[in-house]
Amino acid sequence: MINKKFKKNMIFSVITIVMSILQTLFMVPYITNAVSAEAYGYVSVVMNIVNMATIVSIAITSMSARYITIELQKKDFDKANSYFNSILVALIFISFGIILLSTVAISNINYFMNISSGFVVQVKILFAVAMTSLVISLIISPFLSGLYYKNSLFIMYIFASLNYLLKIGFTIVLFNNYKLVIWGPFIGGLIIDFCSLIFYIFYIRYNVPQISISISKFKKKNILDVLSSGIWISITKLGTILLSTCSIYLSNILVDVKITGIYAAIIQLQSLAILVTGAIVTCFNPEMYKLYANNEKDKLIEYTKMSIRILDIPIGIIVGGIIIFGKYFMSLWINNQYMNYGMLITLSVIGLSFSLPIDVLSNLNVTVNKVKLPAIVSIISGILNVTLTIILCKSFNMGIYGIAVSQVAISILRALIFFPMYSAHILSISKKTFYPDILYCTVVTLITILFGIIANRILVPTSWLTLIACILFTGVCSFIIILLINKKMRYKIKIMFLKYLRIKNLN
Q: Which of 43, 170, 198, 288 has its CA 20 to 30 A from that of 395?
């Protein structure tokens, strides 16, 4: 099932991940040291608020590619075209609403954020730039169906990589010219967003000629179809925000602005694992849509299990590596004060070994259009997280650690109790089917931690050279052991290697 297009998409997704890491490695210490940790905290809070704003649109955007792509796979081009235009018109109206609300929010930003007087104008400009990028991304959503249909997601990753590069470029230019503004780098991202919109319009015109922009093809029924399932994705998104990304905003209003900046920097390590997950999981979507459209249930189950196992390996190694080397990395990357936050770093990522593998199952639920109950569970989880956070911070005076403990506890419970059993239920298979695949990530994490402890005993990572040496030793040893205990993975790598040798000999 892993074809050339999947490999191409995966390669470019890895490039995007690398570019994102480079951007983060460069920008966080650059802003933190050139301006202040407080300033970076404002950037993170604004990005979180923008993420919350997507809730009003995700009911449509989350399902747009699914509905359009499946109709294209079925060769029902008239229906696909009708869905495309209906979704596009709806998103244009939503965009106008977001622009109006953003204008009001910017004028009253002090009412829902704690901001020092010297940063008020900068935060307002950053908010405006970020919201403009959000509006463009909404309009782009239905055009991405062409990439899913052609299984050419690598194009999306190319634009993402350019986005990261231009942000770095704008940061260097502005800061070297003494323009110490927190919104400057995001202008570069806005330029790429606009260019990508123009590209996608022409891409779908020439590569999916069955789709054409025509307001006359708008049908209210199509929007109601999308909303019937999409509204639950919107609720799921709200639950996810309340469970995870809302932590930075809660820190801003419950703790203080300085620790928010520190925590926002630490959360970048968590964001790395989430980024890797998102990039890999997206590569599985086109094949899932295709198998579902062709009613190949057994293959869909097999593909889902394989997808989880593939995802487990990089996630487990990343999480295990962060737990052991996170404080050393943060100390070298930004400053020595982060050596005091080893426990906070561990708490920020330890739950990911359980929660991230279920992203594949979430996509499976979207594919088969069973999203109502997951949405209800997600919103309940989010509300529980916010409630527990307030209790731990206010009643038990745990501060930033209360936020981290609440998030990890609720996310693990959500991942282990509900998603594996529900996904198995909707496919009418054993409730235990997906548990071995999900828990495999924890095994990978523990193996990585073991080798990390060994590496740390041999060579304390107090410099970039020793840190890289420890990470390489840990990663390579962990991967070798994982292959030795995973017969299926070892067999697949053997087959790929033999194919490579045959091609080489033929050349």
A: 43
Helix (H) or strand (E) holding 437: helix 435-458
What was the pLDDT predicted at 503? Answer: 44
Q: Token pair of 251, please?
A: 């820190």
Residue 28: what pLDDT?
77
8 A C-beta contact, residue 232 and residue 375: yes
**What distance in Å separates the CA atoms of residue 186 and residue 159, rounded to the nearest whole number?**
15
Query: Would you say 186 and 131 are in contact if contact means Cβ atoms under 8 Å apart?
Result: no
Which DSSP helix (H) or strand (E) runs through 148? helix 145-149
CB atoms within 10 A of CB 437: 21
CA-CA distance, 114 to 257, in Å (whole number)? 7
Do the Cβ atoms of 33 and 27 come closer than 8 Å? Answer: no
Say if residues 278 and 360 touch (Cβ distance below 8 Å).
no
Contacts 24+ apart (CB under 8 A), 496-502: none
178 sits in the region (left: phi over 0; alpha: psi -120 to 50; else beta) called left
* pLDDT mean for each 10 residues of the chain (507 residues): 69 82 78 67 78 73 78 86 89 89 85 77 87 90 84 86 86 72 81 92 87 84 81 79 78 80 85 82 84 90 91 94 95 89 94 93 89 90 92 90 93 91 94 94 96 93 94 94 75 55 47
In angstroms, the CA 184 to CA 63 distance is 33
Flag whether the pTM goes above 0.90. no
Instruction: Report how far residue 293's alpha carbon sits from residue 351's, in angstroms, rounded to the nearest whole number.
Output: 34
- The Cα–Cα gap between 325 and 470 comes to 9
Cβ neighbours of residue 478 closer than 8 Å, sequence gap 6 or more? 316, 317, 320, 444, 447, 448, 451
Do residues 366 and 286 touch, judged by C-beta distance below 8 A? no
Structure-block tokens of residue 84: 């495309």
Angle between helical axes of 246-254 and 372-390 (0-180°, round to 10) = 20
pLDDT at residue number 329? 93
Q: How many CA atoms lie within 13 A of 416 on its CB side?
A: 14
Helix, strand, coil shares of the chain, percent, nearest 5, are 85, 0, 15
pLDDT at position 500: 45
- φ, ψ for residue 428 (rounded to 5)? 60, 45
Q: What is the DSSP letter of 427?
A: T
pLDDT of residue 1: 47
Q: Provide the token pair at 126.
A: 């950053």
**What are all long-range contacts of 113-118, with beta carbons under 8 Å and residues at least 24 apart?**
113/42, 113/45, 113/49, 113/252, 114/252, 114/253, 114/257, 115/42, 115/257, 116/38, 116/257
Instruction: Quote the CA–CA distance of 331 and 340 in Å, as a whole number.
Output: 9
User: Which are the contacts of 207, defined by CB distance < 8 A and separation ≥ 6?
Assistant: 146, 150
